[in-house]
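Re: weekly structure request thread

Next one in the queue (440 aa):
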Amino acid sequence: MKVKSTKDILDKLEIKALNKMQHEALKAIANSKDVLLLSPTGTGKTLAFLLPLLNFIDDSLEEVQVLILVPSRELAQQIEQVIRQMGTGLKVNAVYGGRSGYEDKKDLKHTPAILIGTPGRVSDLLRKERFSTHYIKTLILDEFDKSLEIGFENEMEDIIYELPNLERHILTSATQGIELPDFLGLNNLKILDFSDSKIDKLQLRGLNYTNEDIDDLLIAFLSYMGNKPGIIFCNFKNTIQDISNLLYENNIDHGCFYGDMEQIDRERTLVKFRNGTLNIIIATDLAARGLDIPELAYIMHYQMPHREEEFIHRNGRTARMNAEGTAYIMYNSNNKRDYLSDDIIDVKIKELKSSKPLTSTDSLKATLIIGGGRRNKISKGDIAGFVSKIGGLDFKEIGMIELSSECSYVAVPRSKVDSLICNLNNKKLKTKKVRVSCLE
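Done, posted below.
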C-alpha cells in the first residue's frame, strides 16, 4: 500500500502542524509494540493514534486488520468520520448498540480494514462469527478507562482472548489513576504521559449563587453569553429535564444529551449543534469526551462532578488545541468540591443581569433531513447540487452537510425552509426520489 504522507493528510484535514504530543505518539507507536497515551481531552489523541496505523495495514488484504474499541457509540462514529476525512481509501466501519443486526451484517459483508466498535457490540459480532480475527494485529483501546468504568471489562477480556495474532496495543486516556488489567497482556509498555499538560487558553470563572436564585442566574448567564456555543453539564438526567423546561419557558433553543435518550435523538442533537442550528446543549458527563463537536466558547458546570477526573474531561470540551474558552462553575458554600481552587475569579452577578434577554427560538439556521445517504452512493457534492439547483438556494447559503448511512443533513437559512421543502420533497436526488423535511 502506498501510504499517504502525514503532510497530505494534514492538508486534507486543514491542520497546519502536529503538536508535541502527536509527534511523540507517532514516534512511540512506530517503535513500540505497546503504548499508553495519556493526554487531556481536546489535545488531538485520535489523530495521534490514527496516523501511524497506515503503516500497519495491507490494503490488498480484505480482512479486519485494526480493531478499535471505544466506550460509546458517539466516539465510534467520530473516529469513523475522522478516518473517512483523512481520505486514505481504506474501508472503515463502526458498530455499536442501537444499530440493527442487519446493518452490521450488510456493512461487514465487504470486510473493512479498520473496525471500530463498543465492546458489547463487537463481542456479540464475534460470537456470531461475523468477521475473522486472524488478521487483527493492532488493537486500540480509546478512552479505555471509561470502558472499564462503565462495566465492559468482561467483554474486553473475551474480545482479546479471540485475537490470536495480536502484535500491538495502543491505549489512550485523558487521565491517570486506573489499574491496567492483566488480560491486556502488555509487555514493555511505553507510557507517554501528557496528562499534566495545561490547556493554556482555558479560563476558569465562578458563579456563586449563595445569595441568588439559581434559575434566574442561569438565564442571566445565557443572556450574557448570547448565541455563543456551549454545553451545560449536569450530574443527573432529571436535572437536565428541569433545566430544559426552564429554557423552554424562556424561549431559549437548546438540545439535550444523556444516556437514556434514543440513539437517533442523540445523533440529531449533535448534528444540529455542529451546524449551528442549536448553540446550547444540556448534558451529562456522556458529553465530556468522545464527541465530534465544534470549538466551544464555554462550558458550564451547573452541577459539579464528584470526581476531579470528570471535571478535567468536561473542561477539555473547550479551549481545545489552540482555541480559547472558559469553564464556568456554579457553586455555593455547600457544594464546592475539594479539587476546586480557591483562587477562581467570580463573575460579577450585576454584569450578568444587565444583559439583554436571550430568546433564540428564531435561530437563523435550520436543519433539513434528506432521505438518502452514503448507502445510496450520495456525496456531499450531490447534496449541495440538489439543494442549489433544484431547491433554488444560493451556494453561499448552504451550511454544513453531514452524511449518515441512510440519510443526510444540511444547514440552511431558517427563513427559506418552507420554500426548500416545497421545491425538494419527492424530487430525484441522483436516481431516487427523496423525502425532505425540517429537523425539529
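The first helix runs from residue 6 to 13. The mean pLDDT is 88.
Next request, please.
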